[in-house]
Amino acid sequence: MKTPLRLLAVFSLAVLAVRAESRAAGTPKAPPPSGFALIPAGKFMMGDALNEDKGAPQHKVNVSAFLMQKNLVTKAQWDEVRVWALKHGYPDLPEGKGKGANHPVQTVSWFAVVKWCNARSEKEGLAPCYHTDVANTKVYRTGNKDLSNEMVKWNATGFRLPTEAEWEKAARGGLVGKRFPWGDTISHRRANFNNSGKETYQTGSTDLHPDYEKGENGDLTFTSPVGSFAPNGYGLYDMAGNVWEWCWDRKGKYPAALETDPHGAVSTSQRVCRGGCFFFTALACRVDSRYDSQQASADDFTGFRPVRAPAP
After folding, report:
1. How far is residue 299's CA from residue 195's CA, in Å, rounded to a whole number?
2. Residue 3 pLDDT > 60
3. Three-state DSSP class for 40?
4. Burial 92-114, CB ≥16 within 10 A → b, else e
5. How big is the CA angle at 116 (ends 36 and 288), to the nearest 5 degrees?
6. How many domains does the chain have?
7. Sheet strand arrangement including 259-260
8. For 126-157, what is each residue's pLDDT tens digit?
9. Distance (Å, rounded) from C-alpha 30 to C-alpha 219?
10. What is the pairing mode between strands 59-63 and 42-46?
11. pLDDT of res. 11
């Protein structure tokens, strides 16, 4: 099927916006490593621009440049790091689940994905971000540790989860005030989600995605292979649908004042997930939609993708 001219025009505008942002002060000029996209530094309007979510009021946020993995972490990628980790001081990294090697890993808790990020960092010779002490001297490798913002070495070279602000800036792909990474309407042609809500902006076939509605072994594993749909303006795939994505932040109220690189609330045991999933409706797939889950929760609906600091 040929891409409609209207979609091409929207995508072209997003690319132009990305190029303009890339010229912003503080955005590195070095090309991103394979599999990662550079999200340029700059301000953006975070939150709901269409008055559909009182829990996500619009406010301006300034975000430093960072690199984000283009695709969700797959089961194969999870397994590769896990095999190394179990032999190098990460004794309780879980197996996780996945419908296939090229499908997103599922049933991994927030604790597990944070440790996995550290393991991948060490495996690749990079400095881990997460520690069990505020002095950042003890690398987090085992157990379920309720980490604070101070236990993260934010300028380390290794992998970590995106903050909620980073995730939303990346998901918007350079567009402003839109519901989704590509525009204001959604269909199964654009994402793997449950099109059974009553939203006026859903179109096309209804219910679960017809290409992926069959699970395996009776489980709710209706995922699609990563990268099955068109990327957004930053070159990121599956920023709406497929599986929810863990973020660093604890869920809290948005402030009214301008923030720079916010790290979220300082209390509660619930961490934010973003992006919607195969089982949730269009409402959850909006770029400003916020969902929270217990840190120890590991279910079929949730996966993740890492970010890291860019080269100078």
Report:
1. 21
2. no
3. coil
4. ebbebbbbeebbbbbbbbbbbbb
5. 55
6. 1
7. 42-46, 59-63, 259-260
8. 999 999 999 999 999 999 999 999 999 999 99
9. 43
10. antiparallel
11. 46
DSSP states of 99-157: SSTTSBPBS--HHHHHHHHHHHHHHTT----BBSSTTS-SB--SS-----GGGB-TT-S
Is residue 170 within 8 A of residue 237, CB to CB? The reply is no
- Residues of the domain holding 75: 1-312
**pLDDT tens-place string over residues 206-222:** 999 999 987 665 555 79
With beta carbons less than 8 A apart as the criterion, state whether 54 and 288 touch: no
Contact in structure between 192 and 229 (CB atoms under 8 Å) = yes
CATH number of 273's domain:
3.90.1580.10
Residue 288's identity, in one-letter code, is D
Give the DSSP H/E element, type plus range, for residue 43.
strand 42-46
Could you identify the residue written with the tokens 């961490």? 271
* pLDDT at residue 215 in the model: 64
Distances (CA, A) of 161 to 14, 130, 175, 195, 304: 25, 10, 23, 28, 8
